[in-house]
Each structure stands twice: as C-alpha cells, then as structure tokens.
Design goal:
It holds the Pfam family 5-FTHF_cyc-lig. By secondary structure, the protein is α/β, with parallel strands linked by helices. The protein has a single domain, classed as NagB/RpiA/CoA transferase-like (Rossmann fold, 3-Layer(aba) Sandwich). It is 30% helix and 22% strand. Helix 2 runs parallel beside helix 3. The longest helix is centred in the N-terminal third of the chain and has 22 residues. The protein is globular.
Length: 200
C-alpha cells in the first residue's frame, strides 16, 4: 500500500468520524424537521418519468428519514426500492410499496423479503457519511454502494447518484481514490445541489 493511499484512508476515516459525530449530535426533533425539509426540496427537484425506478433507503441510527420523500416520489409515478444486504459483498434493491412487509436484516436494518421483486435503479438516493462541494462522498466503509453501482454500470446502466445527507455532514474536501464514484447531486435540508458543472 502506497503512503499516499494510506494517508487518504486515514484522512477518510477521520472525516467519517467527525461528520457522523456532527450528525449524531442533532436532536431527534432536528432530524425530523430537516428530513421533512429535505423531502420537500427533493420532491420538487428530482426529475423522474412515470415508472422510473428510484432506490431510497430505510434509516438506521441518525440517518435522514426518507419515508416522506419516497412517498412523494411514489405519488409522482416513481417505483421505489430499497437496499437489502445479501452477504458481506452484495446489496440488491427490492421493491418497497405501502403494502410491503419488512423483515429483519443485517447491521440493524430491515427491508423487503425475498418475495419482493429485485429492481435496477435509474435514480439512487445514496446514504453517506460525508460529502464535499465537488460531489465526492465518503460512505460507511463497507463499499456496498460502490460495488452495486459498478455492477449496474457493467450492465450498461448509468444510474443518477444523489447523495442524501444533512448540511452538517459537508466537509471541505474528500480525499479521492480510484474506485470512488462521484455524485451527480446532493440533497440536504437546504436544497438540491447538482454537481454536473463542477470540476472533478
């Protein structure tokens, strides 16, 4: 492992720790209010066609609660799915409807069971630990989303990647690694911010 690579990893670990500490410090009522504001911004800003497949996620720990946004996007004709961990390497996206029964999963998660259809998202609402103003993100360290996005791109698909976070999770600069996937936009309680014209 090169010294630069090792330095990047250590820097990412520290930024992840700081950003998640800031998120954890938000009160429950703050997170509820900010999640609602984020949903309103997202419902107006995210472009989708009828039947578009959108992957959201069900919140764990202090994450943004996307229930309201997913419901609004479903009302606009979106088809909603959420990630389910299959093993130590893989997540799949199973359809989530108002009638879906959730079953316990790994890492304290819950999600649709294997009877629900697996979908390939066109728009991905991506959880993250930290992000910067250029559209680079730090995930939770497991690499699940990076692998899922790579798998979709190998199939010729190019999902739009929208990072989901609170404003307090923004950092000055995220160290880059070759496998990192740049976000197309980020959505926070302050609004929707596209990165299409930003330098890498």
């Amino acid at each position: 492992m090169s010294e630069a690579f090792s330095d990047n990893r250590m820097r990412k670990t520290e930024l992840r720790r700081q950003s998640l500490a800031a998120r954890n410090a938000l009160s429950v009522s703050d997170r509820v209010g900010k999640s609602q504001a984020l949903a309103v911004h997202g419902a107006g800003a995210i472009e989708l066609h009828t039947g578009a497949i959108v992957s959201g996620f069900l919140p764990i720990r202090s994450e943004v609660d996307l229930h309201h946004l997913m419901a609004l996007l479903r009302d606009r004709g979106g088809r909603i799915c959420v990630p389910v961990v299959l093993d130590k390497e893989t997540i799949v996206f199973r359809e989530l409807t108002p009638e879906t029964v959730l079953v316990p999963g790994t890492f304290g998660t819950s999600g649709p069971g294997p009877e629900e259809e697996e979908l390939e998202p066109e728009i991905m609402l991506v959880p993250l630990a930290a992000f910067d103003a250029r559209g680079h993100r730090i995930g939770y360290g497991g690499g699940y989303y990076d692998r899922a996005i790579h798998r979709l791109r190998e199939k010729g698909l190019n999902p739009r990647l929208i990072g989901i976070a609170f404003d307090c999770q923004e950092v000055a600069s995220v160290p880059e690694e070759p496998h990192d996937m740049k976000l197309d936009a980020v959505l926070t309680e302050s609004g929707y911010r596209p990165f299409a014209d930003m330098p890498a």
